Amino acid sequence: MTVRIQEADFDLSQEIANLRQARPQIGAIAAFIGLVRDVNAGEAVSELTLEHYPAMTQKALEAIVAEVKQRWQLDDALVIHRIGRLLPTDQIVLVAVASSHRGAAFQACEFIMDFLKTQAPFWKKEQTPAGAHWVEARDSDALSAARWSDKK
Amino acid sequence: MALSVLYFARLREALGMAQEDIALNPKLATVAELLEYLRGRGGPWQETLASARLFRVAVNQEMADPATPLKDGDEVALFPPVTGG
Lengths: 152, 85
Hints:
The structure holds 2 protein chains of 2 kinds.
Chain A: E1 2-6, H1 12-20, E2 28-35, E3 39-40, E4 43-44, E5 47-52, H2 54-71, E6 76-82, E7 84-86, E8 91-99, H3 102-119, E9 122-128, E10 131-134, H4 139-146
Parallel strand pairs in A: 1-6
Antiparallel strand pairs in A: 2-8, 3-4, 5-7, 5-9, 6-8, 9-10
Helix pairs in contact in A: 2-3, 3-4
Chain B: E1 2-7, H1 9-15, E2 19-23, H2 31-39, H3 43-48, E3 56-59, E4 62-63, E5 75-79
């Protein structure tokens, strides 16, 4: 289980190759990639800056990964989150989960994203024609995380 | 006997400060009491910390609530609801 916070971009193919290397028992890998969009809430976005709380970020993401290991039978999980200055179309986050079968991989991948969105201390600041502003947290993200407490 | 208090993102900008040390005293025994003390500074402090919807608190890198106790050397962080991913 690996958690990485970095400014550099990542290569999906390379990361998946590393995840499955020498592990013939893996039957399924589910991966999610979050991207910078050029529009948010009807406003053009020309640039995004991602700030975080370094001492807490690693800890919070590792706690989320530990929780998915408890809930599902997984072979491995990988979380990469970028920080710093990003541009539209840039990759922001990668979550990849390896398991014997697809059910656990799909669900664990979605669980990690739902909790990353509500628990991990990252903040986005957008540059728009009207100036720079901090992105507001969305209630729908809290609801997405809350629905897991009813499951399993 | 002190707390290290960190401010992030919108809070850091609104409060004009990224970090400060605050001396502990018997009236600063919980997160709720620390928030009351900070609001007492008035101006942007009062405004930014007015509603619990506007910010979150972590103590020693774990999410905390108003009743969380504080002790010497704790790292307290105040920040907006998170927006990563």
